Amino acid sequence: MVRITLVSLVIALLWSAATHLAAAQGQSVHGGVPASQQVACDIGPPAPVPVEAVAAGLTHCVANFDFSQPEYATLSNWFDCDGSNPSALWHSGSAGVTFVNPCNIHQKIDPVVNQNVMNFEWLTSYDNNGYNQTGIYQANQVGGQTFNNWTNFATLTVGNYYVETVNRVEGPACTSCPPNSGGADGDVYMSGPPEIIVEESNTIGFASAVCGGCRPSIYYWTNYGENSSRLPSGYSVFDYHTYGASLTSDGATNKYVCMWVDHIGAVRGVVGIEGGVVSGC
C-alpha cells in the first residue's frame, strides 16, 4: 500500500516488480529486460525499466501512475475522498487515520516544467483541524493511499518492489517557522513492515528518508548533517528530484532496503536476523 502527502507530484509513481510467484518464493528473477526499455504496465501507460529495478531482478511493471494524463484531471476518476467511491484505487487517509481536511488535490500546469502535475495542496487555513477533531496529528494531512480505511481493504499491494517518484515541494519557503516545527510537510511512504519513507520534505527546506524496522532504524539520507553527502550537489526540496527505494528478500529470513536520490545510492539496510547495515546499493 502507498501513502502520499505531497504538495506537488509530477510524472509517475512507478512500481516495477518481478512476477509475484517468484517474489513469493524468494527467487531472484532476471527477465533479460535492459534498463530504459519501455515495458507494458498492469496499470497506466508503458514505462522505462529503471536500472535500479533491473539490478534487483524486478522487471514487471505493476503500475505507472502518470498524473499528467487526462484521466487524472477529474478526481473522482481515481480518488475516493470520503468512502463513497470504493471502486477507486486511491483513498483519502493514511494507515488507520482518516483525514479531516478537504481533498485539495488537482492537476495544474507547473511553470517550472511547463507540464501537467498533480498538486496535493495544504492550506494554512487547515491549521490543526485534523488534530483538534481526532487527537491525531496525521489527520491534518492532505493525501491518499492504496488502502481503503472505510472497508479495511488494500486496493493495491505488492511483495518485492522498486518504487520511484518525481516530485518537489512547491513552497513558498517558510522563513518564519521554528526549526523544529517541520513546516508544511510532504512525504511518500511504502507501508510495511518495514515502513519505508522514500522521501519526506518540508517548506523549511529539510528532507530525509528512513526505514522504520531496519536494524538499526536509519536515515538513508538527509539534506542536513553527515548524511547530506549522499545527495547530489545543489540538492533542494523546491526542485524536482527522482526518489527511489527497493525492498527485496531472500525469501526466508531477511529483507533488504535500498534508497536513491537522482539514481545515487545511499546505504543498504537489512530487516531480519542478520541486522546491521551494508554500505552501497
Describe the secondary structure blueprint for this structure.
Blueprint: E1 2-5, E2 8-17, H1 20-24, E3 38-39, E4 41-43, E5 47-48, H2 51-55, E6 60-65, E7 79-80, E8 90-92, E9 105-110, E10 115-120, H3 129-134, E11 144-145, E12 147-148, E13 153-154, E14 161-168, E15 185-190, E16 195-202, E17 207-212, E18 219-222, E19 241-249, E20 254-261, E21 264-272, E22 277-279
Please, could you describe this protein's structure?
The protein has 3 helices and 22 strands. By secondary structure, it is mostly beta strands. It has one domain (2-279). Strands 2, 4, 6, 9, 10, 14, 19, 20, 21 and 22 form a 10-stranded mixed beta sheet that branches. Strands 7-8-11-1-15-16-17-18 form an 8-stranded mixed beta sheet, with no helix packed on it. Strands 3-5 form a two-stranded antiparallel sheet. β19 and β20 (254-261) form a beta hairpin.
Task: Sum this structure up briefly.
By secondary structure, this protein is mainly beta. It has helices spanning 20-24, 51-55, 129-134; strands at residues 2-5, 8-17, 38-39, 41-43, 47-48, 60-65, 79-80, 90-92, 105-110, 115-120, 144-145, 147-148, 153-154, 161-168, 185-190, 195-202, 207-212, 219-222, 241-249, 254-261, 264-272, 277-279.
